[in-house]
Amino acid sequence: MTVLTPERRAAQTPRKPTSLFIPELVYFEPDALSYPKGEQIMEWVRDHGIPYRMTTSHNRITNLPGEGELEQYKIAKRTLVVGVRKTLKFDQSKPSADYAIPIATGCMGHCHYCYLQTTLGAKPYIRIYVNTGDIIAAAKRYIEERAPEITTFEAACTSDPLAVEHITGSLAELIAFMAEEPLGRLRFVTKFQHVQPLLGIAHNHHTRIRFSVNAGYVIRNFEPATARFEERIEAAGQVARAGYPLGFIIAPIIWYDGWQEGYAELLAKLAQALPPEAGKDLTFEMIQHRFTKTAKAVIEKRYPKTKLEMDIEKRKKKWGRWGQNKYVYPDEQQNALREFITERIFEHFPAGRIDYFT
Ligand code: SF4
Questions:
Q1: Do the domain assignments include residue 149?
Q2: 266 domain-assigned
Q3: What Pfam families does the record tag this protein with (predicted)?
Q4: Considering its fold, how many domains does the chain have in total?
Q5: Residue 164 Cβ < 6 Å to ligand 1
Q6: Global pTM?
Q7: Which residue in 39, 59, 110, 323 has the fewest CB atoms around it within 10 Å?
């Protein structure tokens, strides 16, 4: 008789697909209901029997349920706030794009290292914006200002927009808009697999969809509440077959015992799983793990058992754009990571392009 270890048993049991996000509580700004998208979302909320409340501002949710900070944080990650985006001045989004296009803020994922931990501070709930028409009009102005240059917009700077697409439909609108803009390009990155609604859109190759991937060790230990690696890769194949330019972000690249095997396996698995169409126009972005002192304090509070290494003594200090020092790997480790992963990328994808390592 073969005795199965718990790991082998888990590997042999078919796993349920990662489900679509259904919030546990929804807040609406009253103004949001005067937009068709706001009305549609209200209908969706009622159809799903989700409790909802009204709020004066999507930036000030003060009565979240939950005892204590940690419980409130967990509930906030399952809370949706539907509002009107007032700030239509877009932030810069280097090195991935020219501007961040704001269609959502916040995410239900629980990635320990996520920079939203600090940038969203006390507002970890998920905000979605109903005035996509205004957001698109603002994007059009940015494109016109920069003509004849091409202007690129990143839709995933402050959230994972694919994870709420079944509620908002906003990515579909942006993709359709950008398809008609000779000088406009869209890109977004995701850790989810629900690409189905985007596959039939006429995108005109103006939107690049990227999947965030990592070594198995990183996904297992630091990315709870996101889609599994296999699901992301299957979705990447669907996206490539639908003719979208495809990309992968390997981030955060983490130095751990066995990192070479882990990252070699990652690239080998990608090469094995992707259809031939995927290799035609494929980009890679590489981002090494970094943290600030503020992020470290927040992460240790929210994920007290995390194995994420954040030892300042082992890191190199680098001046950050937002006025805070960040801690990256020392040069020797950075170079080893970059060279090793670059070699593996070109070994499996000779026609691939590396956009940056940071
Ligand atoms: S999926 Fe992306 S945005 Fe969401 S928590 Fe993870 S890293 Fe952050």
A1: yes
A2: no
A3: SPL
A4: 1
A5: no
A6: 0.94
A7: 323
